[in-house]
Amino acid sequence: MTGQNVHLFAAARDVGTCLVGGIDGPAISAAGDLDTLEFITSIQPVRWPAE
Fold first, then answer.
1. What is the CA radius of gyration of the chain?
2. Is the pLDDT reported for residue 8 higher than 90?
3. How far apart are CA 28 and CA 18, in angstroms?
4. Is 34 helix (H, G, I), strand (E, B) or coil?
5. If DSSP codes are grouped into helix, strand and coil, which group holds residue 27?
6. Can you say whether the dihedral through the CA atoms of 48, 17, 4, 41 is positive or negative?
7. Rounded to an integer, what distance in angstroms lies between the CA atom of residue 29 and that of residue 6?
């Protein structure tokens, strides 16, 4: 649900976004100092288009 809201927010403001699922979840979880029951399933970058 959150990914959809981010996508709609980005589209309404003419910025680009995409859902990235091919990530190293354990490495990102370790870098974020997450507990064992917390994990990252995807990331969603948002940015203004290049001019």
1. 13
2. yes
3. 18
4. coil
5. helix
6. negative
7. 21
Residues 12-31 have pLDDT tens digits of 999 999 989 888 988 988 89
Give the pair of three-digit tokens for residue 13: 């403001």
CA–CA distance, 41 with 23 (Å, rounded to integer): 8
Please report which residue ranges of 1-51 form alpha helices under DSSP H: 2-12, 25-31
- Find how far residue 20's CA is from the centre of its chain: 7
Contact 39, 25 (CB under 8 A): yes
Report whether 37 contacts 6 (CB < 8 A).
Answer: no
